[in-house]
Design a protein that fits this description.
The complex is a heterodimer of chains A (428) and B (147).
Chain A lengths: L1 H20 L5 H26 L6 E15 L15 E10 L4 E11 L7 E15 L3 E11 L30 H4 L1 E13 L3 E11 L4 H7 L7 E15 L5 E15 L12 E15 L3 E16 L6 E16 L4 E11 L8 H7 L7 E14 L2 E11 L19 E12 L1
Antiparallel strand pairs in A: 1-2, 1-16, 2-3, 3-4, 4-5, 5-6, 6-7, 7-8, 8-9, 9-10, 10-11, 11-12, 12-13, 13-14, 14-15, 15-16
Helix pairs in contact in A: 1-2
Chain B lengths: L9 E3 H8 L13 E4 L5 H11 L3 H14 L6 E2 L3 H10 L3 E2 L4 H21 L3 H11 L8 E3 L1
Parallel strand pairs in B: 1-5, 2-3, 2-4
Classes of the chains: A mainly beta (428), B mainly alpha (147).
């Protein structure tokens, strides 16, 4: 029975893939879909095997397909020429296999195309061994080894999962797409300890240590096209604690992050504009979430500290403390339709909220010092696993556009810019 | 309802809630719990979530999506119909699922009918009863929810 259902799902997915992409003739996209199809065609075979095994849920296969349209007016957020874009593709396929009572293997491959937002292409989103070190009625302790996702912020683990995040484009001050590949997860070790009781509620404590590889495209996105050297993340240490009081609609969280990076210049004689450098990034958040029957509220409040040693010239020092928050509300109009409203306010330097000092000292326009976004959106759940979404953003400021360190002031020549996006999503 | 080999005959509301939010993964005998559910928009799923678990279906979805698509854990297995859910629970050791009262009554009636038919169609009643006991392994347990 289950195997039949899985086989049907696979066929259904293939049909949808065909329908959505038959009119989009992009080579890379087709390659990504080919990987997905190969993966899916395997699923009925595995499902057959399940039938003979005593536990049908030892192997689980899931995935998602989404495609959208996005139009940005007034910035290089998605593309340089400002035209309507189909660069809003997110595909994923994951497997989870229960090896023994205590060990589980899990992995996910995603293909992302977001234009200038992040590097286009397929990547291993996570690939880990999950050791269930201890579990009883109230406690769970797990250790994850390998590549794991950042699970510390409200939407960090679901930022690439279109239907699991609140909007097509997330608040960029926390979920900055330019930092996506670094912030989305790490290669290393993580642990999660959960406690749940009727008296005190649910506690989730997480800690992780690791680093992320930084691609050349990512180096260009963050630093500049003129940076010919290599950037590396030395370490990324994070911890977070979430608490949901017993039988409460509220949940509260706190998270801390400390990361270090180095830049190895190829040298001025070889044409590199920059010098060897150290970067450090610290990020602290507190968040709250309320989930009611029709209303939902969430928000994150944060402070970051970014330091640069050298880079522009030996002896150069920068130490910026940025702050921000966003408040988000969702309202369930009907069982299938949800409205979204959000306000986000962020500035890169708390002592220069309007960017005037930035302009005076570096010549970079003042509006690169902040990012404010008003978002209105609509989500419609067509079925239990097919949704459509649309949203509009009114943005003030260029503080969350790439490249970060050496901004593109030619394309991003205005303080105000706008964008809208629509997206269809299917998952199984 | 649970698989017949599951030892628990009753669960508290909070135990049930922990099981469905994937915060309790093992039965009291340390065997793994296999959770089965209907699709999110299924009327019975919506009722079960709100009335029995006192959680809104969208909240369950979020918890499960996070586990499934971030590699953190495993979410319940979704089956398309009530019939399929009963089958899945019957066949999977350590499983738990839910059905309508009416469906449960129907199953019990059918079950009794079969027993009665078998009893009347044969003179060797005692042998048939023994056989029936053997067969009843395939039928699900009904778990009481307390508190």
């Amino acid at each position: 029975m289950l195997s039949k259902l899985k086989a049907n799902t696979a066929v259904e997915v293939l049909n949808i893939v065909h329908d959505i992409f038959s009119f989009i003739g992009r080579k890379s996209r087709i390659q990504a879909i080919a990987i997905l199809i190969v993966g899916l065609s395997v699923s009925p075979i595995h499902a057959q095997e399940d039938k003979s095994s005593s536990n049908s849920s030892d192997l689980q296969l899931h995935g998602f397909i989404s495609q959208g349209l996005i139009d940005v007016d007034g910035s290089d957020f998605v593309n340089d020429d400002g035209s309507l874009s189909t660069e809003l593709t997110e595909l994923g396929l994951n497997a989870s296999y229960q090896l023994t009572n205590k060990l589980r293997l899990a992995g996910q491959v995603v293909y992302l195309d977001g234009g200038n937002r992040y590097a286009q292409g397929a990547r291993v989103d996570y690939a880990l061994i999950d050791w269930s070190a201890f579990t009883n009625e109230n406690w769970q302790a797990n250790i994850y080894l390998g590549r794991f996702k950042n699970n510390h912020w409200l939407y960090s683990s679901s930022r690439d999962i279109p239907f699991a995040r609140p909007s097509i484009i997330l608040p960029q001050s926390v979920y900055f797409d330019g930092f996506r590949d670094i912030a989305v997860g790490s290669d290393g070790i993580a642990s999660k300890i959960s406690y749940s009781s009727d008296d005190y509620g649910n506690f989730d404590w997480q800690i992780s240590y690791g680093s992320s590889p930084i691609s050349d495209e990512q180096t260009t996105n963050i630093l500049s096209e003129l940076a010919l050297g290599t950037a590396e993340q030395d370490y990324d240490a994070q911890t977070s604690l979430y608490w949901q009081p017993a039988f409460s609609s509220w949940r509260f969280g706190i998270s801390l992050l400390d990361a270090g990076f180095t830049y190895d210049s190829v040298g001025q004689s070889n044409g590199d504009y920059f010098f060897d450098a150290d970067f450090a990034f610290q990020f602290y958040t507190v968040n709250a979430l309320y989930e009611g029957e029709t209303w939902e509220f969430s928000g994150e409040l944060y402070q970051q500290r970014f330091t640069i040693d050298d880079f522009y010239f030996p002896g150069f020092e920068l130490d910026n403390v940025g702050q921000g928050f966003y408040l988000q509300s969702r309202y369930k109009l009907t069982g299938k339709m949800t409205l979204l409203a959000r306000y986000e306010d962020f500035y890169l330097n708390k002592d220069d909220k309007d960017g005037k000092v930035l302009e005076q000292t570096t010549g970079t326009p003042y509006y690169f010092g902040f990012h404010k976004d008003i978002t209105l959106g609509l989500n419609y759940d067509v079925t239990s696993n097919f949704s459509a979404r649309m949203e509009y953003h009114w943005v003030k400021g260029a503080g969350r556009l790439t490249p970060v360190v050496v901004p593109n002031i030619i394309i991003n020549d205005s303080e105000d810019w706008e964008m809208w996006a629509v997206q269809l999503m299917y998952w199984f | 309802m649970t698989h017949p080999q599951v030892a628990e005959r009753s669960l508290t509301k909070s135990q049930l809630r922990r099981i469905y939010t994937m915060r309790q993964l093992r039965w009291s005998d340390n065997s793994a719990i296999n959770v089965f559910v209907l699709p999110n928009q299924h009327v019975l799923h919506q009722r079960f979530a709100k009335e029995r678990l006192q959680i809104f279906p969208y909240q369950l979805n979020r918890i499960w999506h996070k586990l499934t698509y971030s590699g953190l854990g495993v979410a319940p297995t979704i089956v398309e119909s009530e019939r399929a859910l009963i089958q899945a629970v019957k066949q999977t050791p350590g499983s738990i699922g839910y059905i309508e009262d009416i469906t449960l009554k129907k199953i019990q009636q059918e079950h009794r009918k079969t027993v009665a038919e078998m009893a009347t169609s044969s003179q060797k009643v005692s042998v048939m009863e023994k056989e029936q006991k053997g067969r009843s392994k395939g039928v699900v347990n009904v778990v009481k929810i307390k508190g």
